[in-house]
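Quarterly update from the structural biology core.
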Amino acid sequence: MNYRWILMVCLFCSCAVAKVKSPDRIWVSVDVERVPQYGLTVFCPGGKMHGFRFDEKKHAEYVLDDREAAILTFQHGFQERKQMYVERGDSLRLSYDGNSLQNTLKSNDSRPAITAYLAKAKITDLSRRDYALEFPAFLARLKEQEILNGKLLDSCRDELVKESDRFVRLERNRIKYTLGSALFNYPAMHAKMANREYVPDDSYYAAVRELFREDSELLCLEEYRKVLFAAVDVFVQREEAVYDLYPRTMKQMEYIQEHFKDEALKQELLFILAQGHIARYGIRNSGELDELYRHYVTDKKLLARYLAVYDSWAAIAPGAEAIAFHGEDAAGKSYSLKDFKGRNVCIYLWLNLHPCMQQFERLKQLQPLFEEKNVALVNLYLEDGREGWEKAIGNKQVQCGLHLFSDDVASFLKAYHYESHKVFQLILIDGKGRIVESHVPPVELEEMLKRL
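Predicted structure, tokenized:
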């Protein structure tokens, strides 16, 4: 899979780009002299990754609208990277030659001291042997490492405060909560390193509770969020061991609703859990979660953001009208969903990768069933470049169904919640243009075809 494809996936899987600057958002623009050969990517809190797509003027934009502040990591190609701190309302403008971010970057960065600090800062975790310590000694070692990691921040604090007092507070807590995750690893790691079973006692739960500080200002820190959710899970599991994902999420939401006092923090955490679950797994069998969220969350912005994700899944639920596709075959003939009116359609989204080739073998085996059930197999290629597609469809392994290429599949993939890490996706549509299933599990395709 080429790097340009990765960037395209990043584009429609990350935050949407807006052209209007707003004090409620963090806005970034980039101008280059030439489009970077291996792309420019920005890594954001929460594991979000956005690949900049440059227009004909070699200009690109990005908007982050769900954080009060963030450390953004810009990566040019595979090696060059630059970290910069931004706050809500910032309009960060970058420009470079497209060849070397390190040597030619220019910006309107108003916090050079913080940028210089980030270039040097490093948070060192505990070593494996530290987990062999008895718990009181482990806590002392954890505190010692926190102090060591904060030395650089202490040494330039006065200079950093002049640019942003908020950054200093956040960075102090970023260091603390990055190390805090070690607390949740301790039971399993101590048992392994000390070669004996460890059963958490009251002192362990007291230490976890100390990390349980309610502070909505820290929600922009991914490290704080992770520790908070890990702490919630510790106390949920202490009451009753729950292993399945959905009931576990429900228990976490119920615990937050019952035990948290800061209403703003409570609603944000409920949003993160509910929206995260729906975004990843869809709305099927999520009625309890949806009901709980709508009952307890009253913040209009959080409701709107949740509903946007919920409704996008409702739009591709079984029985919903199918979203149209457009593409051309090797001869240049155009096709869309309406060309298959009256026929069932199986859309296969694929890349030129081994797992996709294996799936083609399975689709070939199902050809008699496709014919029996009047199913048109439409293979929609996802990588950039018609030339690469023409070469790929010449492969003997892919000789089944109708092969189509489209220069613009991003909106189609976003609408169908395509997940890049799963590589391929099967979509089944009936003869009336209604969705049978938007994410057909490969092992269930045969049975679903038989039921058409």
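Residues 1-20 have pLDDT under 50 and may be disordered.
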